[in-house]
Structure formats: C-alpha cells, structure tokens
User: Fold this.
Amino acid sequence: MRAVCNVVGIILLGVAVIYFILPADQLPIFLPGYEPDLARVHVKHGVVSGVAGLVVLAIGWFLGRR
Assistant:
C-alpha cells in the first residue's frame, strides 16, 4: 500500500507540473482542462493536483512508519 501511495503521489505531482508549465491548448487531450482555443495555464488544476499529490505522499509516509 505504501508503494502505491508513493507512486500515485509522484504521478500527481508530475501532473501538477504539467498544468503549471503548459497552456490549455497544449495539454494532453486526456487531462481535464484541455481546450484547443485557450492559451492560458490552469493554475487551479495545478494547485489541486499538487496538494492531492502531497496528501497521498503523506499518507504513504504515515503507512510506512509501522
């Protein structure tokens, strides 16, 4: 369970970085927020993904303390 939480947390942090550096028209189509005519970054999506990644990593760390 700890390894799964760590992997998911790292993936979510990577997605947060993608949201912060790519505008909406350059996002991969499978990510929420993709809009072909919008040239701004989705800061809220990045913040939520980053916070979720940190929470999942904290859960993985807590589970590994046993």
